[in-house]
Structure formats: structure tokens, C-alpha cells
């Protein structure tokens, strides 16, 4: 197997830590740098106790090593600002922030605070292979999707592809997420006593991930995001109202068509036992997604579900998956982690 | 080994040899619980569901 | 203050325990009986550790004492079967099950397994004072609402009353609930290892509480209920699409109109600090409801929220509140519990 | 009933919030001031969502109102510094910090950073009525105990009183506490993702509460404190090795002797059902303590348990209880909250 | 690499599921059978959602396939009863129950309900390689240790080996465990509403794992086990009182000596950052153990900590590790899972 | 004490005496954070919001 050197900018953060976990166990990568300004010179294990065994210290993002692949796991706006030096340092840049997720500069004016490096937008490819596999091979700038967007895109894609939901239709997306979505820097509302046990509408309307749904599925969505009691996990419940009649068989057909060859997606839709629909805890720690659906004939509604680990399939795992595709590696390399059963609130 | 079609999702379900009428198996694709209502040839039906009872 | 004797049938269950907690602290009630078949002759504190101080033992439901008020906290179907003896034993019967919640016998055929004591349906009053106060005074059969229905009814009522949502409109209701909703008898899926940390679509479609919304607000709803990590709490997020334009001021007007005189309802809609929208943990253990809304102009959507303690405002608290009204007591008597802050996952 | 005015210095903190909750529901108190520097002029409900109904805004601790009772819920060192103005403002000062808990100035040099207002130490009475009731009547400076110390004192007192454990004996105390013990200001280790689900030895040795055990029971203890997953609660497991033979009957005798007339202490020691030994969640939100024991004849060991709500019996509740005694009120006034069942992780 | 066929008796249980997860990902094993009476003919994924991808159905334990290695994950007493057929079916039997853990038949009379297959006891080897590596090579009956015993053995072994604690000394062991320890069959006390958020002394005295400490370290321990809020994890806090003076340097020396060559043990003892002492959540899902210590000079005490995943290092992982040794495989084969960070309450 | 109308929900907000321009208070009804932009007579405006930053 060919081997590639890798750097993680923002290695002390939550998704940066996940990247390190994945790359350290990945047979084709060798991690040569992880940056942190706050923890410069501290061992990686100081911050990430699961990586105590790793013989690596954080270094400054000011002095980037030259590598094959640079992963950036920094807050919105940082990659935009440093994209030139990132691309100088590495042939392939994989960014986990929103900075290169949307194809059009305009969308950044509408949904974010504008864009300051628009000349790179045309080079960027959306990382989710289930949507954009064909454009990833050989890409040199990849933008990992938003976690809530990813859960929703995977849940809705079969319905869109099969034509059950289309352009004008308004889909209600009700998302539940864990606290790791907020990153390592959390403020007062993220303290354990305040954040524990909540069902908290933290983004009741106007969520930025609506833009990704629009851009990549052409879908109008009305998003509401709730913080719930878990650390890892994003679960999207999408309420769609197809124009015409749909049967369970139609739905199975659509989901099978979309995912039967996908290595990371399981369709879970109403079987027996305890786990009948997608659940984030079943995929925590893995790059897997569970998607599924339920039919509500009385309301002419299809409820589509998508459950992922926000930091994995929703971010770092998706990033590594896309890098595998871009570099011509076997897609699942380094991403064969299995979920845990039983498991509490991971 | 024989196969039969799942009535829920349409996938093929592999059946073991000493299949008996009344047995319940789950479809490996959709997880539906299927009752064996005949054995030669095998015929499967959706088994009556045992829901968790949520009072409220 | 006049005093009333009370019995709790199903006193060993979850809502039965809540009834006992409330009645024991209620200045106008004296609890003379609590039934349980499984725990007959055991002290109430054996089952409910918070009531260790109570000098009362469970007795058989076969031998009902004659009391002023009989509260029944039994599974669906039990009250129907025993309603004659319940009404013989007490002048006022307050039932927490679904057995007398719906006004029409037909609805029981559609949503439940039919009804076997239809002659009592006409006597029954729906317990929620915010909807039905005027009919409760002097009632002698009262049916406490469903918990998910209660959260939704309280969230949506102002929008219906103000005419922002009307008959034909389809409202998507996405509910998140705690494990106590399942009652004390839980099976495998309710065991701690399997139930912990879930975001589990347990009633993806076809939820029976749609019937109460139809009956009491004339509203068509498309319900989906998720089990999430908490023991107490029900939180309804209602996605409504008013026909015409609505402003924040309109919404504040509608909610204030509906609730400014209500002793148990707080409107929480986007202020500052950590707690900006309704949250179940803020009302856990109390008879309070938090309701609120957010406006999504881009999607022409109003998101309405309702958060309650499923066993309190959603059941036992609502029952005692209604009994207070029926008996002519001050409405808040015995129901002045305050929530806790901070609190984890109550 | 006589009525008293009260102020809460540090009203925006966790125990300050509990004081407010208690005093607002207390028939003999009227809250006239709650201070906060950070939230000056904001409503109390902005910080404490359970007190939204309260018509009071935080004011500056620089301008203290003259009141009957001033409660201080500030970090260690603050009361020491302001004790003169506190005592000027109020006839009775009840302090929740450690500043006046220990009788001897020396002890502050050993366990804390010394003491700067030693002239008040002689006036201070330790708040725990179960230990010090006789000295509280008429006191004008009261120091609420430490929460871990309180749980341990209540668990061990019967064994000491009965002579089963004595001076030279070394008792191992293994404590488990919730995240609210850290107060509202928590840092990174208190963020939800890092703090969730831990069994974290946060004070493996050298815990300051050993000093209170020494001072008030004359007991040498070897303390270890673990943070575990809950917000409220402190549970002390005390491993004691009596010199001579002890029977279960002896132990029941000792605990009954100590607590049969105590209004807030329940002895729970190995009965049937699910709740056989003291558990913090059964007393969360209340001023109750559960204490109990198990006998280990093979190891000649007695295991003594104490479970409380750290912010209630372990702090604010204890403070109000002591104030009731000091002011000659019925001890239980305003402190009749019952625990919840079922309840998750409160 | 040589390949071995494997069967898991009790494959529908919690540790049976972990065995399947490990064996499916293990390059040297091929799983040919998983038994369950309750789920006969159902797919493995019906019970274990993390193994949906596995093409295997449960079969009856009455019809055992002939394999190289049979793993038994059945309740105490079952292996004893079926040991002859187990050993007929496989050259190597690895049992996860207590049935062959103790070397002497007498000990079963004292701690369990006696033993009915004592003739096999002499063949059995204790699985924990850190204690018994030299006897595992070529073994054909292996008994995985108890989970609480494992956490304690690993924590205490360095102190015993270094002579800091010896025979007569009484060590207090205070254990905190997650709900998966109870297995999949849990009753009422294990239901989510009752089990959530507890600090529950479930085995206050007389815990059977004391026997393993006695047998394998020659140590007298006074055990108390608490159920706390987590699903996976066992954490032992051992309070030891060395006869003579001990320094931190001595302790570091002892732990390093014991574990520096061990692939699965990390020593974590008071460094910086958030994770300073052993924590079960840092090792959840892995075969790793964290051990550490704190010195309490005032009390002449050493506090030793051990944290593991009860189902992994405390059971299934230990079993696979021992099988690797027995079969002459690289010890870490199939056991390279890394923990997660951040992670909630796994 | 003076009063002013909350610009968010229309409720009356009671104002303390020594009100200063730039102070932020919250409306007792809707909780909105209001900035004092003038004192005589008092004028309140919605204060710029400080959102929790959720990266995702
Ligand atoms: N958390 C999720 O679930 C999730 C999901 C999808 C996408 N994302 C995206 O992934 C990115 C990282 O999120 P996160 O949750 O991992 O955040 P995080 O935990 O807050 O970590 C941010 C990292 O970036 C570094 N950093 C911050 N400012 C920097 C600067 N100006 N220059 C260089 N390094 C800087 C920080 O380290 P130092 O400050 O020490 O340098 C830290 O290592 C974000 O863009 C987020 O939107 C996150
Ligand atoms: N849990 C909630 O959040 C909630 C919310 C709204 C409404 N409700 C409704 O309230 C009712 C009670 O719910 P729950 O959650 O409290 O249930 P639960 O915990 O299962 O308790 C049921 C109680 O009923 C008794 N019981 C069962 N069958 C009986 C029979 N045939 N005759 C007499 N007593 C019987 C049980 O005791 P023995 O078996 O020992 O006699 C037990 O005391 C249900 O109708 C439910 O729909 C519950
Ligand atoms: N939490 C517990 O479980 C517990 C148990 C037993 C005892 N205690 C003791 O109770 C006290 C309070 O603890 P907590 O957990 O409630 O703390 P907290 O949540 O951090 O609250 C501290 C309060 O003090 C105020 N404050 C801080 N510094 C101040 C100063 N220099 N002058 C005036 N006010 C100041 C803060 O408000 P502003 O900064 O806005 O003014 C805040 O209201 C501590 O001494 C603690 O040891 C706590
Ligand atoms: N859980 C832990 O953390 C842990 C840690 C260390 C050691 N252990 C030990 O590991 C063993 C398994 O524990 P667990 O927690 O995995 O238990 P569990 O979840 O209850 O599973 C028990 C398994 O054994 C099967 N079984 C029960 N009785 C049987 C019988 N008579 N013949 C054949 N199969 C039978 C069950 O399936 P069917 O009934 O469907 O056949 C099930 O698959 C126990 O001995 C336990 O002490 C467990
Ligand atoms: Zn199928
Ligand atoms: Zn307002």
C-alpha cells in the first residue's frame, strides 16, 4: 500500500482528535504533525486520553510541515484565512469547517459572514462519497459536510432520487444532537450541570445546514435542531409529504437502490427487536450511518431517519473516507470500527 | 438451503434446512419478523408484532 | 378548608406514586387507600423511596374504600372494566388512562381496541383546565389527558385560538419523551443498558394522541415520538405553517392572551441566557408547563414548543389540578412545587 | 408566624439559587435582595429558570440592604473579607462557604490559605442541627457544613456516639459527588463532553473536609472523592473497623438512637425492594438525608452510608434549617419538599 | 497467520456480543456458531445492532459445532454443567463465567453454591495475562476473571509485588460499576427509570470477587460495589495502608516495573489536564486498563486505582487476549481498538 | 421607578432609578436582552445577541 504523510491542524479539538484517532490506526497514513496553540509542546495524550500511547506533541499552526495531506479541523473562518498556506503545505487539503462546503460565494453572504477566499471555491469538492464520489478522485481540496446536513442528506437522498419528494416540497427536519457538536471550547450553557438531560431547542430556526440541503439535494428544508443528552450523535427526523401515493415496497426499493452498494450505510426500517429504526448510539465511534423510514398513510407522510456520529460520519470519518477516495485507496481503509452493544450515552 | 422472498422488503431470505411451520425468523435485510406458514415450498408471512407498551 | 378523602388505584405505578406524593402534601386531601396487587401489604415506601415517611400499606383493588375522590392510575382498559365499582366507591373519579379521554365511542374503535363502557363517556370531562376549565366544576368523572397530547395542546392552543393555524392545516409534531412514560413495568427495551442514551423513534407514526388533538383543538397532526435520555419529561416541537404573514408581536400577543392568567403556564420564547425556549428539565417534578415559539420567516413557519413533566402536568398533576377545580378548591392548592436549578436529567 | 427579611449574597450561583428557591417558598421569609456582579439588573429567572415567576432583579453586593438574615453563598475567602459589612447589614449571618466552619484559626492555616477574620471564629456555630442543635438557638453567625463532610458526619455519628469507632481509628471514606459541587463557574473539565459519564477521582487524597470530621466527630478519616455522573448528590461510603464485635442489632440500635427524633434523617439499611441502602437520587431536591449501614463480619467491618443532595442538606437546606432553629421557628418550616420517584439523574 | 474456527455459547448476551464483535474483527478467527435459545434462527444483528452486517444466525446450544475454540459466555453454573460437551466440541475452551476461576473446589463451597465438575479445576488457567501469562501458552481450559476482580488485581499487583502491601494487610476496595455488569436479563431494579443516575451500594459486603483477590494476590480485601450511572465500566479504588514509609518515586517504580512491557496497561497517576487518574470512560470499548495511584502521607495511605471496560478487559477482551496467548498468536491481535474522546457515558 | 415597553414582546419593563445608557437588562416577560439607549425618557433596544457558538 502506498503511504502518505498527514498533518492535523486543530489537533487539540474534538474533530481533530477524531482525525488523529483514525489516522493513527490507518495503514496508509503517517501522522507527522498535530497543531495546537494552547497545548503547544504538550503530548497529544494530555488532551486526548485515548491517545496516550501516541508519541507526538502538539506544535504551532504557524509552522506547518510539508505533507501529502493536510486535514484542517478549525473553527469557521480559519481555513479561509489560511487556505493558501494550507495548500502550499500539502497536495491535498481536507477541511472540516464550513469554509469550502458551499459551491457559491453568494451562499456565504446569505448564511455565513461572507467569504474571503472565493477563488478556491471552484476547486473544492463536497466530501460525502454517497453524494459526490465521482468527483472526489484526484481532488485536491475537499470540504467535509456539516454533521446535521450529512444526517439529513443521507436520510432524504433516496426519496429525492426516486422522485417522491421534489423541488417545491417543504420538508420539516427535526434534528437531535449531542454536546460534542459544540466543540471543545464550550461556554456556560455547555457546562455539565446546565447541559445535562436537556431537550433544548438550540437552533429553532434558520440553521445554516439548510444551505447544504439546498445545494446538494435541491431541497427546501425547515430545520430545527435540539440539543439532547448525549455527547456523540446526530439524528435527523425528516417529515416529508410526497405528492402521490407511496408504498412500503416503493420505499424499500428506493433505499435499497441508493445504498445497497454503499459500504457505510445500513437501512433500518421497522424490523423486530429493540433497535427498529436508526439510532445514533448504535453507530457511535464509527463511520457508519443508519438510515430508514416509516410510512404514515393517514397523513400521507413519509418519515425519513438518519443517524450518525457527528464527529465521524458527520465530520472526521467522512473526511478520511473522502481522502481514501481521492487518493485511490480502498474506501473502507482505516474505517472498519464497529459500534458497541450495549452502550450507554456515548 | 432454500430461499424465499421477504414480504416486507422484497429481499431474499436464506432458510435453514429443517424449517418448520410456525417458526419465526427475521429478514436479514429489513429485520421484519416473518412466520413460516408453509414449508414446501416455503411461504413467509409478516408475524404479528409485539410492540413495547408505552402507556402515556 | 374542606377536606376530602382519596384513594389511588394503581398506587404502585409511576403516576400512582406521583398522585400519592401530591395528595400527601395537599392540605385538602387525606389518602386512605393505595392499591397494588403485586405489593399488597407492603408499605408505600417499599416501592416509592421518596414516600418512606408515609404510614400506609398497599391494599387490594378488589376491596375499594368509600372515598370522596378515587384516582385511577391503571393501564388502558382497566378503568373501563371497573368504572361502575369506581363510581360506586367515590363521588368523583379521576382517571389517568385513555379510557375516558375521547368524547366519541367511535374514536376508541379507530385508535384503541374499542370501548366497553360507552355509557359513561358522556359524563367524562377532559381534565386540562387550560382547555376545559368551565366544564370541570362539579364534574364527577374526569379524564386526564395524554402526556404528549398535553404538551402539544398547550403549545398549539394559542395559534389555533388566534386563527394562525386552522382546520385543514397539517402540523408536524415531533415529540421527545423520557422513560417514565413507559410505566413501571418496562420490558427489555426499557432496561438501562438498552434504553440509555437513545434517540429512538419509538412511535414513528400513528400515535394515538393524534386523536386528542383532533378532538380538543380540531387539529390534524402528524406525530412522531422519540424516546430520549431522560426519565421525566415530554417536549413537543410543533412545526406549523400559517397561511398568512405572522409577526413576532402577533405571536407574543397570542401566547399572552392564552396564558397570562394561567397559574401553571410560562411563555418562554427566545430571551437571553441559557434557557431560551421551553425545556422539560426546568419543570421536572412540577405541574408547570413551559410553552413558546420561534418564527422562521424564510420557511413561513412557526415552531411552537411545549415542555412538561409527563407524570405531572402530563398526568398526575393535571389530575389533581382538575380535581381542585371540580371540588371548588383554589386551583394551585398542593401544586406549588418549584423546579430545580441546576438539575441533571431528572 | 413572625416574618423575617432576607438577602442572598451570591444569588446567581448554584447554592445561592437553592437558597432563593427555599426562601421564596418559606412562609417566614421575604427575600428583599439577591446579589450578583455578573448579572446585576437581570431578573433572577434569567439565571434560574425555575424562578421565572419571581419579581426580583440581581443587585450589586456592594450595596447591601439591611435585613434580618443575610445568607452568603460565595466562594471561599469572600465572606472572610466582607464579614464586617455582612454583620452590619444583618443580625444573623448564615455563611455557606468554609470561611467559618472550623473552630480554630490554626486549622485554616493547615487546610486552607489561612484566615483573615479570626476574631469572628468564636461567634460562629456549625449549622448541622443533628450535631449542634443546642448551640444554634439565638446564634448570630452560622457556618453551613461542607457537603461531603455532612454526608460523612451523618453516616458516622451513630457509630461514634455508640463507641463503635473511636479516636485512634482510621476510617476510609469514599465519596461520590455530582457536578453541581463545582459551582456555576466550571472550567474545561466541567464541560458536558468531558464531565459526562465519569468515575473520576477528583480529590484522591488530602480533601479539606477531613478537617470537619476531625473537628466535629474527633474522627480521623482518609477521604477520596470521585466525580460521578449526576448533577446533584453526594454519597459517602465509610469503611470502619470497630475494635470489638458488633451485631446488626447493635447497629440498628445506634442509628435509631441517633436519628429517631430527627425530622430530616431516614435510616435505610438493607430492607427489600429496589432501594435498600442510601441513594442520593431519592433525596435530590430535598433537605433529607438517608443514612444506613451494612455489616461485614468476615472483615470485621462496618460500612456506613450517607446520601444527601449536596446543595440542600449539604448546603442551602442545612443553612435554612439552621436559620429556622436560630430564629425559633418550627425546624421543618419551608423544608418539606419530597423527593421524586422515579427520577433519573437529578 | 494460522486461522482458527470459533463458537460462542451465549452469543445473545452482553459479553457474548462482545466476543462476537472481537472475533468478527480478528484476523485469526472465523466464527462458525453463536448460540441462543431465545433467539434461535434470528440474525445476530437482531440482538446486536452493531453486528447487522454479520451473516450469521443464532443456533441452539444443544447442537455444538466442532471448532478450534469454544467461548462460553453463560451465567454461573452453566459451564460447569456442560463442560464435558464443551471440551468435546473444542480443543480450547475459554469460559467467561466464574465456574473455573478459582483453583480450589473448597472456595466454591464458601463463595458460590459448590462445584459439580471439580475434576476440570486442575486444568483451568486464570485468563489474565498480566498475572498468569506463563501458564496460558498451550492451555486448553481458560477461565476469564471477574470484572471487579480484574480492575482490583491490576491496581494492586504492583503494590503487592513491591512488598508495600502484604498478607495480613486489609485493603478496602470501593468499586463503581456500570449496568452492563448485570447482563442482558435485568429485572425491575435494572429498568431505566430505576437504574438511571444511581449511586447504589448493590453489593455492600461479601462480594464474591474477594475470593479471586485472595487466590491470585494472596490479598485480604474488604469489597463494596456501587452501581453508578454508566453502562460500561468498572473502576476500583483501593485504599491500602503500607506498613512503612513509601514515596511517590517508590510507587512509580513499582507500577513501571509491573507494566512497562504490558501492551494493554497504562499508568495514569496525577499528571496534568483533565484526565489525571484512571477513568473507565477513557477505555470503554477497548481491552485497555488504566491503573494509577495517589499517595496520602497524612494518613499513611496509598490509594490505587484500576479502570477497565467490564465487558472487555474485564471479560471478553481478556478472554480473547488469553486465547491469543494460548494459541501462540501475537498478543494484541484483534484487540487494537482505541477508546473515544470525547465520549459521554458509554 | 419608571417603565418602558419591551420592543420584543410589548410588555412593560420596570426600570430602576439610576439607569444608565448602555446598560443591558432583560425583559421580565420575554427575557429579551434590552439595551438602554436613552434615559430621559428611557428608550430600550434589543441588545445584540451573544449566541452559543455551535460549530458543527
Ligand atoms: N464537533 C463536531 O461535531 C463537528 C461536526 C462537523 C463539523 N465540525 C467542524 O469542524 C471544525 C472543528 O470543530 P471542533 O468541534 O473540533 O472544534 P474545537 O473542538 O473547538 O477545536 C478547534 C481546534 O482548532 C484550533 N484552532 C482554533 N482557532 C485556531 C486558529 N485561529 N488557528 C489555528 N488553529 C485554531 C484549536 O486549537 P488551539 O486553539 O489550541 O490552536 C482546536 O484544536 C469546525 O469548523 C466545525 O464546524 C465539527
Ligand atoms: N407514565 C406516564 O408518564 C403517563 C402519562 C400520562 C398518562 N399515563 C397513564 O396513566 C396510567 C398509569 O400509567 P403508569 O405509567 O403509572 O403505569 P404503571 O407504572 O405501569 O402502573 C400501573 C399501576 O396499575 C396497577 N394495575 C395494573 N393492572 C391493574 C389491574 N388490572 N387492576 C388494578 N390495578 C392494576 C399496577 O399495580 P399492580 O399490578 O400491583 O396492581 C400499578 O400500580 C396509564 O393508563 C397511562 O396511560 C401515564
Ligand atoms: N455547590 C455545592 O454543592 C456546595 C456545597 C456546600 C458548600 N458550598 C459552598 O457554597 C459557596 C457557594 O458555592 P456555589 O457552588 O454556589 O458557587 P457558585 O455557583 O460559583 O456561585 C458563587 C456566587 O458568588 C458570587 N460571587 C463570587 N465572587 C464574589 C465576590 N468576590 N463578591 C460577591 N459575590 C461573589 C457569584 O456571583 P457574581 O460573580 O456574579 O457576583 C455567585 O453568585 C462556596 O463557598 C461553596 O464552597 C457549595
Ligand atoms: N457482564 C459483564 O460485565 C461480565 C463481566 C465479567 C464476567 N461476566 C460473566 O460472563 C457470563 C455472561 O455474562 P453476561 O453479562 O454476558 O450475561 P447475559 O447477558 O445474561 O447473557 C447470558 C447468555 O447465556 C445464554 N444462556 C443462559 N442460560 C443458558 C443455558 N442454560 N445454556 C446455554 N446458554 C445459556 C443466554 O442466551 P439464551 O438464554 O438465549 O440461550 C445469553 O446468551 C456470566 O457468567 C458473567 O458472570 C460478565
Ligand atoms: Zn425483509
Ligand atoms: Zn419582553
TrEMBL record, chains A, C, D, E:
A cellular component term, taken from the record's GO annotations: cytoplasm
Enzymatic reactions: N-acetyl-L-glutamate 5-semialdehyde + phosphate + NADP(+) = N-acetyl-L-glutamyl 5-phosphate + NADPH + H(+)
Keywords: Amino-acid biosynthesis, Arginine biosynthesis, Cytoplasm, NADP, Oxidoreductase
E.C. code: 1.2.1.38
List of catalytic residues: 147
Associated pathway: Amino-acid biosynthesis; L-arginine biosynthesis; N(2)-acetyl-L-ornithine from L-glutamate: step 3/4
GO molecular function: N-acetyl-gamma-glutamyl-phosphate reductase activity; NAD binding; NADP+ binding
Gene Ontology biological process: L-arginine biosynthetic process
CDD domains: AGPR_1_C_LysY, AGPR_1_N_LysY
Semialdehyde dehydrogenase NAD-binding domain boundaries: 5-139
SUPFAM superfamilies assigned to the protein according to its UniProt record, in alphabetical order: Glyceraldehyde-3-phosphate dehydrogenase-like, C-terminal domain (SSF55347), NAD(P)-binding Rossmann-fold domains (SSF51735)
UniProt xrefs under Pfam families: Semialdhyde_dh (PF01118), Semialdhyde_dhC_1 (PF22698)
Subcellular location: Cytoplasm
InterPro entries: AGPR, AGPR_dimerisation_dom, AGPR_type-1, NAD(P)-bd_dom_sf, Semialdehyde_DH_NAD-bd
Enzyme class: oxidoreductase
Similarity-based family: Belongs to the NAGSA dehydrogenase family. Type 1 subfamily.
Function summary: Catalyzes the NADPH-dependent reduction of N-acetyl-5-glutamyl phosphate to yield N-acetyl-L-glutamate 5-semialdehyde.
Protein's name according to its UniProt entry: N-acetyl-gamma-glutamyl-phosphate reductase
Originating organism: Halorarum halophilum
UniProtKB/TrEMBL annotation, chains B, F:
Lineage top rank: taxon: Archaea
Record-annotated membrane-spanning stretches: none
InterPro entries linked: LysW
Protein name: Lysine biosynthesis protein LysW
Organism field: Halorarum halophilum
Amino acid at each position: 500500500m502506498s503511504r502518505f504523510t498527514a498533518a492535523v491542524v486543530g489537533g487539540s479539538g474534538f474533530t481533530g482528535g477524531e482525525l488523529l484517532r483514525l489516522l493513527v490506526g490507518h495503514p496508509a497514513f503517517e501522522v507527522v504533525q498535530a497543531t495546537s496553540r494552547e497545548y503547544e509542546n504538550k503530548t497529544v495524550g494530555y488532551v486526548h486520553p485515548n491517545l496516550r500511547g501516541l508519541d507526538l506533541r502538539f506544535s504551532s499552526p504557524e509552522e506547518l510541515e510539508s505533507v501529502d495531506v493536510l486535514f484542517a479541523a478549525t473553527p469557521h473562518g480559519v481555513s479561509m484565512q489560511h487556505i493558501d498556506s494550507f495548500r502550499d503545505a500539502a497536495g491535498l487539503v481536507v477541511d472540516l469547517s464550513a469554509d469550502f462546503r458551499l459551491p457559491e460565494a453568494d451562499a456565504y453572504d446569505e448564511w455565513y459572514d461572507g467569504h474571503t477566499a472565493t477563488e478556491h471555491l471552484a476547486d473544492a469538492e463536497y466530501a460525502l462519497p454517497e453524494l459526490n464520489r465521482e468527483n472526489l478522485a484526484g481532488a485536491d481540496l475537499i470540504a467535509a459536510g456539516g454533521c446535521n446536513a450529512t444526517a439529513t442528506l443521507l436520510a432524504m437522498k433516496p426519496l429525492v432520487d426516486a422522485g417522491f419528494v421534489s423541488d417545491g416540497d417543504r420538508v420539516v427536519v427535526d434534528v437531535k444532537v449531542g454536546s460534542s457538536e459544540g466543540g471543545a471550547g464550550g461556554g456556560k450553557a455547555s457546562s455539565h450541570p446546565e447541559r445535562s438531560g436537556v431537550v433544548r431547542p438550540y437552533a429553532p430556526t434558520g440553521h445554516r445546514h439548510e444551505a447544504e440541503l439546498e445545494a446538494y439535494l435541491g431541497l427546501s428544508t425547515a430545520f430545527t435542531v435540539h440539543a439532547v443528552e448525549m455527547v456523540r450523535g446526530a439524528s435527523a427526523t425528516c417529515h416529508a409529504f410526497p405528492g402521490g401515493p407511496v408504498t412500503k415496497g416503493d420505499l424499500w426499493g428506493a433505499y435499497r437502490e441508493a445504498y445497497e452498494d454503499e459500504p457505510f450505510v445500513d437501512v433500518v426500517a421497522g424490523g423486530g427487536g429493540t433497535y427498529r429504526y436508526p439510532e445514533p448510539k448504535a453507530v457511535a465511534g464509527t463511520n457508519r450511518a443508519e438510515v430508514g423510514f416509516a410510512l404514515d398513510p393517514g397523513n400521507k407522510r413519509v418519515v425519513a431517519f438518519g443517524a450518525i456520529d457527528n464527529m465521524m460520519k458527520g465530520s472526521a470519518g467522512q473526511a478520511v473516507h473522502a481522502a481514501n477516495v481521492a487518493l485511490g485507496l480502498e474506501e473502507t481503509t482505516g474505517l472498519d470500527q464497529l459500534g458497541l452493544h450495549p452502550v450507554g450515552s456515548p | 438451503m432454500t430461499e424465499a422472498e421477504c414480504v416486507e422488503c422484497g429481499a431474499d431470505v436464506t432458510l435453514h434446512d429443517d424449517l418448520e411451520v410456525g417458526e419465526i425468523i427475521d429478514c436479514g435485510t429489513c429485520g421484519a419478523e416473518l412466520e413460516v406458514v408453509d414449508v414446501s415450498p416455503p411461504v413467509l408471512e409478516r408475524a404479528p408484532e409485539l410492540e413495547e407498551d408505552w402507556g402515556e
